[in-house]
Every structure is written in C-alpha cells, then in structure tokens.
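Can't paste images in this forum, so I'm doing it all in text. The chain is below; anyone willing to post the predicted structure tokens underneath?
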Amino acid sequence: MGMRLGRYGIWTFDFEDQPAGLIRDSVQELEELGWPAIWIPESERREALTHAGFLLAATERLVVVNGIAQIWSREPQWTHHGARLLAEAYPDRHLLGLGYGGGRRDTRPLRAMTGYLDALDAFPESGTPIRRLLAAYGPKMLELARDRSAGAHTYHVTPEHTAQAREILGEGPFLGVEHAVLFETDATKAREIARGHLHTYLTSKYNVAKFRCLGYTEADIDGGRGSDRLVDDLVFWGDLDTVTAKLREHLDAGADHVGIQVIGTKPGTSAMPHWRRLTEALLPADVPA
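Text version of the structure:
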C-alpha cells in the first residue's frame, strides 16, 4: 500500500471522550515509543475524517487508520474530498477504512457498500492516491474488499476466521485484524470485564449472526452474556506473555497487522500504561508490513 503499518498498532475508543490536549499528548508519546499506526472508530462523538486529520497534524510519522468511517455518516462526495485532502496533506499516512456500521434496515450491507464504492469511483483519480480498506467479515464482503480496495479490516474475530479471510483475499491484499486484550489474570474478574465490553455486540442482531458463523451456538451467545469459550476467544486476557502470544496467532493465521484494543481501563483514565507494556513486548521484534 505504500504505507508502513508494522505488524502491530493501537486500536482505541479512548480518544472518543478525551480532551484534545490529552489526545495530542498520548498520540505523540505513542509515536515516540515507536508505534507505527493507530486505528480509530467512528461513534457518536468524533467525526471520522476530522478526527483523523487532528491525529495526523499532531504527529509526524504515525499512520492513522479509520477503523471505520461509517458510510452512513457522510455522502460519498464528502468522503472523497475529505480523504483527498488528507492524502495530499499527509502522503502515505492516512488509510480510509470504510464500513457499513449501524446501517439501515432497508438496505443490505453488501449492496450498500457496493453502491458507495461506485459513487466514490465516479470521481476522477488524480494526484496522491486515496488508499482504502473495507470492514469485512463474510465471504462476499471480503471478496469486495479484495477486488475494490487495498484489503480488509476485521473486528471481533478469531485466528480461525483470520485464516479463512486470508484464503479469500489471497496473498496480495492487506488484512488488518482488531483484537481486544485485557491485562487481568483472575479468570472471574477478567470474564466479567470482557462480558461488559462484549454485551453491546452480543445483543446486536448483525453481530450475533456473525458470531454464529464463527461457530458459536445460541448457548454461547447466552442471551447477551456470552459463554466462557466465546469470551475467552474474543478478549485475550491474562498476563503480558499470555496476551502477546495469543495476538501472534493472528499473524500466524495470515494477518498482516493486528490492531490491539486495550479494555478494562477505568472511565476517564488512559490506557497508556498498558500501551507502554505492549511496546516493550511487541515492538522490538516488529517487522514492517
């Protein structure tokens, strides 16, 4: 893609709520520590392209990835022009991740994404290329990502799914995988925190269908609670060595890059202490992707 995202990056919701000054300090420290990439979602509190632009302006080398910019949040023309500006202002440092997000009940995700890409591709391509990924889970969306973008971004999946996604994408396209981690060694406490993180997804019809395709049963969904098996698979918890060993399973399965989402921090606090620990464990052996 012309970008150096490395094997590992930071994936975080933290910046959705923090004041600009704290965000700036955090992202500059992450860059100084050697993290090559940061992934940001789009929820109700930060507009995706504005957020990306702020992080890019605050740093010098860090690659900023929208993971994801929801296609329902802005018309294609504004996505195109916003991404065009970021591509020109920060060459090889912005990666536009597009996703269906919450979507609309009257439109299927694949059809909606195909139409959105059609609209984007109607704009003439000139100057610095706009690089994009698609949030993809199922075979057809992965194929669309393979054929019409630089690759795919997956969220809340297992290494087994990563292997399946790589098979569909083939050797060339980029595969970035998010995975949540929790530094807690007590199983009862860890699963309680992990269930709190997963509850929204385990009560979403779209995500439940996704988990069922991963092989989890209705008993694993457990009315939104989640079985121990499901929780342990979707949130890697334990000590530093245990967590990092599990993260490497995604790379072994074919991922190019793993975006690490640290959960379990108290509201209003920063995950920076955990990011520093991950720096020492993962970045010295990091191989640029």
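The chain is about 45% helix and 15% strand. The mean pLDDT is 95.
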